[in-house]
Amino acid sequence: MRMPLFLVAATSVLALSALSTAEAQPQQPNYLNQRDIQEAARQHPEIVEEFGGALTGPRAAYVEGVGRRVAAFSGTANAGQVYHFTTLNSAVENAFAVPGGYVYLTRQLMGIINDEAELAFVVGHETGHIAANHHKQRKSAQQSSAVWGVLGSVLGAVVGNNAFGGLISQGAQQFSKMRLLSFSRDQEYQADQLGIRYLTAAGYDPNASATMLGQLTRSSALEARLQGDRSRSTPEWASTHPLSENRMAQASQLARQTGRAGQGLRNRDAYLAQLNGAMVDDDPAQGVIDGRTFTHPDLGMQFTVPTGYLMQNGTREVSIQGSGGQSQFSGGRYSGNIDNYIYEVLQELTGGKTQLQMGQIQRTTVNGIPASYVTARANSQSGAIDVGVIAYQWSPDTIYHFVTLTRAGTGGQPFASMFNSVRKISAAEAAAIKPKVINVVTVQRGDTIQRLASRMAYRDFQLDRFLAINGIDANSPLVPGQKVKLVVYGPRRTS
């Protein structure tokens, strides 16, 4: 029951008269629905766990403080008590809200924000969705969340949407009640308008709305370019609609209408001070995607997906998808034998509601690791499909496995190279994997954009990444004393 994502945008220009005069006036104090409040509180631990955990400490407290400052002008009764702002340990740039007063933003989104006023607009936009009860006014039907349980996704283009019908068990879809809502352009526009109203009332420069939307537009364009070189998938909940430059233009016009554009707080230095040292991209504790390869230093393992396939790293699993099918990697401690493990994976997948025509479990060895695999046939709404499981006996009490979904008759063949790539990595390889963190530096005399960009901890697109994260152009002048963000390798965290 998640509120719309910050990245969801209007796709065409809306006249400023699209919202009534009454909507533009300060709201009467309103109370959030008690049932929504209770449900949001119940869901909160599950959301936090699913999206990598919640950050704590001064940076998280800073976000909470900015959020409460902005929410105080939302027209919501007891705003200081009912609104909660959580920073998630997620490598996806996003923010979303849950009816009942819970607002979430990711550490990755914080990385592209350039000052406190832009942060205020992000949390103001999400607060606006809650205050305006947009979840009760949605126009289109709810869509399933992209969060996978054991295999909470369908084969899509391969065998058609909803191919599995009842194949996915209710137990596997532990977040089936969390829905991604499709909101009208008017509602997205109104959330921007409310965010601008709140941040202006809180003393911030309303122009931050347009610069923040510009940052998102720039980052989205860069990610589209990177998709050609990196096998990383942006999850459905983060990319329902592309950002529109029209939305940025609308925000700029609304900011001018306040009569305070260019005035008010930006607090750039304070924000950058909080951001310094923040992790970006994958957390090594959850494994790291580098091109087509996934490496988990703590588990001491690695695998590589086939060319053209995309990966998305989750808290408990890695999702893989491509033209030949979809797969998911997960596993953990197990006290039985590997055959029983495979049967239990299939049982959990189907919930006992779908008959599988199972073949015989086969045994093999992959890079010295004992493994067993099986292919089963299932009938879906769109015809027959193959469901495969390959499990690796990592240690006497630990098993990891892939589940695959492919066209009937293809079995695990589309993923054969991935199955055979699984290997144990050395202690030295594991130790070499370090997190990427933001390092705020002061421009010195003689520094150039190219020279600073060369210090970015990436093998490709260093200049593009430097420009995008700082919201500057290639011909922008650098001034000694100016602060800019670099992404560098940080020290490896130890548990």
Automatic annotation (TrEMBL):
Residues 234-256 have a biased composition (Polar residues). GO terms for molecular function: metallopeptidase activity. Residues 226-265 are annotated as: Disordered. It comes from the Bacteria. Residues 1-24 form the signal peptide. Keywords: Hydrolase, Metal-binding, Metalloprotease, Protease, Signal, Zinc. This is M48 family metalloprotease.
